[in-house]
């Protein structure tokens, strides 16, 4: 069956001359050069033309010519050429600096100078204006030259081809500045760009060019300011007055990300600082994150520093590293096979509406469409959700958020499936929406679910809070607000599904708990779990965002209905609107201490935005409330937590699981109280630290081997506290810390079973099977580490098998920092028996007593021998045994729990201290993280590289949460559509130096083994950065930012005008 | 829909596909070369970085009509480049990646960098990787791997490359 001819398929013409190009320019035809903007435009829904006229083959439009007087740059020259050209570097360094700020290097190799100009939003325009660029254009009436400034003032004439740009080379005495202010350090949309040039003669300004532009800021020269500067003595410029005049002269609008006011301020700051500091050119690299060797992270004798060079004998290459780097590893979304259909999901696209009808007939009739599914195809319960089943697999009566699925299609190819979606007719009656979590709980709010919008409310109190506050010497009361962070896993949700020849269903979709996915699918599909196989590994990142079902119901239904294998992967845009996010939280926290800084009382009111469905929200709420006191003792406590349904995107599990938001609040409170008491951040923590062995926050028994005091003393000894000096003039520097106290496991109320299996395979490998998932955290290497250590064999002897309900026993979810423990514990439990069975079998074959044998790398050895000589290889042993006689040991156990059941409480905790040094720009208010030192105590380190990776990756994910990441929503729609405005940290945003040490030791008799490392890296990052920023901008904790991500405009205001 | 001829990993190919088909789709869906990953589809993550005429480009931004006559190297073709093998070995030794989905894009970006500049050091590496996003690692492991590769590739280092020109 053939698919449709591609709808909207376009014709591309390749004229050989500019005149031919103009002649072809009819109807909706469009000129194209590099074409890099087209995918963005089409993604935004702008129509595709039927004809593109490619300018790329016209001679004379590429390349750079000219001399010291001026350059002609062909309009089809790539931005990459501008970046690498020595001629541009020599004569027009400002242009090169500007070119290096446009998109990323690979984009610049396609994108052209002409494209950047004709879009009228390009980041080069301020520099081109300041360089007096003249355009060489051919229109209907022939070729002409026109100054860029004039060309920008008149409306675009579509019947023109920009051929080249002419740029006079400025006098070598001119001082210049150029800067693009973005949403992150590099590879960013433009907030505003500036360029300025002062041509001087004997100290007098003979010509001035100042320009702004880029993004939504209309590019233009600031003539009034230029006139004012011309003729002035450079040394006599009143720079503050110039700054004020610039703010008045610059015109810049607001958008969802930055205000017009901010744009004006930073543009003025950048122009003033840049021109004042005498031609000190700012190259596009921005601040180069050099590692600071002078601040080598100290460690106590019992801590180990985690790196390849520090731990050469404990550094193991992951078994999946080579296939990942070479790209040969097949992710579940990579599967392609003959006859496989392509699935697509129809989303609501509106935040709240009643469904009146769904008509799929036209889609079904489209050639190439094999199956269309809706709620009508669901035989079981049309409801899922890990905690409460409030989410429909396909909506039937109403939709509650933009990403709600309504139907899905499987077709012979993607284009046909896409076309079919457009043919599905859904009639809606829009309903009133509520998108503010506070408003959602008012009586007047429209009910999103039948039971109302209060999904959950939790209370906890102890002592007499009123009396506590009454006795207080100091009280800090603040409102913290955190954003809707997106997991941003690189591999979006997807995979494939098929019905096997025996009628069973196999679903291959990246996840975090295959057995639970299977349970949820069985309920939806109305078929026994035994008839479903779920494969969940490997997956390209999860971080909690693949814990809940994603595309599995749609894929399963399509595969069943079509009878064919179906693949489906969400586009990033669809992942953004439909995928789970971190709960935005409003935390009101009131904390009191006595004059000596001892905590007395605390009141906490937490409101979390669940979005349209609960998912793991109730668990997140519990976990947040369990961490309200951090690792501190507070006698009188009263907490309330509420989880509100809204018509926003669904929120759920995300690394930290509510604890990191709450840690932000309590750790900032500690610094504020310290200041009121005249104590250092370390000292106030020292005075309030919980004592080892005392009950947990909820009163529960907790595990031994607490290491909080060690963490705090390590932080106290940090060299980052030493007075860093005032910075280089542009930036102010500050240091801050936070302690980390992260609960592990699912808690006392939630079933938390685990298991694993060791088996000798017929090929002699020892299979270690776990129902856990390799999401990048290093599960496979951890399995090899734990099992090899337990059995005394080599890592290479072990074949980890994970993430497949058909091949591995249920180990419960790969979440809540529990995987490491489960891996270790299963190996510990299964190891002795498995070992004994192998030696018994070998003993029979070797005719030697079993107690004289042991396992060794590669096989069976003499127990008394250390020679490494094998009596029998595992392979020989396996070959000598009948298949049914191959030893296999399966174990099942529960994750350790506390006995406390009045509410959900953790037993095991991991500990950390994070010390951060930041630089805040006086020009932009942007925060640059210089150093992150992480002291961690999570028990024995299973695998050095995996543990280090969790700490480093968690830290920078936390950095992103703190500084740049926010999936903004407005009226129930995502403002942030893709990675062009969702600002994951890039390589320029990462901390300049990042050091991790681990304190491994456990108390005597502590048999609980390794604690979780998965969430420890992220937990304390936000408050440590916040406390450092507070110090940097005001030398006071009272200026600590209270909203995440930090608002650069607010920081700029807090610093005050100091440029 | 006319046939488009181009070179892929050293072999001439001809493909009949609509003009706007993206190179990323051509590689993944037509040639089953799935090492080229797609994580944003708009040139804002670098997961689909390939080499076109010796330069790094985002395969999701390149349309079929733009590859006529081009020389494309996908991650599957990097084995022919000694430089790529050295960079890959350094990244592997450092356990540079976690989930690995971004890894082929980083390997490609670094290979293109070192092919054009054997002396590239940290500033050049940072510039070359500005367009590649990684969500798992926080970049330091990748940077360590890249710096280790730079040391191995530096003129005078033990390895000499014999790359296809």
UniProtKB/TrEMBL annotation, chain A:
Residue ranges crossing the lipid bilayer per the database entry: none
SMART domains, per the entry: Ald_Xan_dh_C (SM01008), CO_deh_flav_C (SM01092)
Cofactors (names): Mo-molybdopterin; [2Fe-2S] cluster
SUPFAM superfamilies, per database record: CO dehydrogenase flavoprotein C-terminal domain-like, CO dehydrogenase molybdoprotein N-domain-like, FAD-binding/transporter-associated domain-like, Molybdenum cofactor-binding domain
A Pfam family hit: MoCoBD_2
UniProt signal peptide: none
Key word Transmembrane present: no
Gene Ontology MF terms in the entry: 2 iron, 2 sulfur cluster binding; FAD binding; iron ion binding; oxidoreductase activity
Assigned keywords, A-Z: 2Fe-2S, FAD, Flavoprotein, Iron, Iron-sulfur, Metal-binding
Database matches in InterPro entries: Ald_Oxase/Xan_DH_a/b (IPR000674), Ald_Oxase/Xan_DH_a/b_sf (IPR036856), Ald_Oxase/xanthine_DH-like (IPR016208), AldOxase/xan_DH_MoCoBD1 (IPR008274), AldOxase/xan_DH_MoCoBD2 (IPR046867), AldOxase/xan_DH_Mopterin-bd_sf (IPR037165), CO_DH_flav_C (IPR005107), CO_DH_flav_C_dom_sf (IPR036683)
Name of the protein in question: Molybdopterin-dependent oxidoreductase
Source organism (scientific name): Ferranicluibacter rubi
UniProtKB/TrEMBL annotation, chain B:
Ranges for domain 2Fe-2S ferredoxin-type: 2-78
Alphabetical UniProt keywords: 2Fe-2S, Iron, Iron-sulfur, Metal-binding, Oxidoreductase
Domain of life: Bacteria
PROSITE patterns named among the record's database cross-references: 2FE2S_FER_1, 2FE2S_FER_2
One protein family per Pfam: Fer2
Molecular function per GO: 2 iron, 2 sulfur cluster binding; metal ion binding; oxidoreductase activity
Record-given protein name: (2Fe-2S)-binding protein
